[in-house]
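pinging the channel bc i need a second pair of eyes. not urgent but kinda urgent?? the chain im working w is below, pasted from the shared doc
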Amino acid sequence: MRDFDQSMRKLQNEDFLGKAKKDVVEREKNRLESLGVTKEKLERNLEVLR
């Protein structure tokens, strides 16, 4: 998932973490968590279909 990877890269980027406001970083963390849950569900569903 492209969105998941982008969000992960942002949160691993020290420049982003240093420059972004705390609420922006927190929002990105929440987004990553939500995308992770969605990704896990999709992967489980894909396994069922195989």
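so The longest helix spans residues 22-49. and The two ends are 19 Å apart (CA to CA). — does that match what u expected or am i reading it wrong
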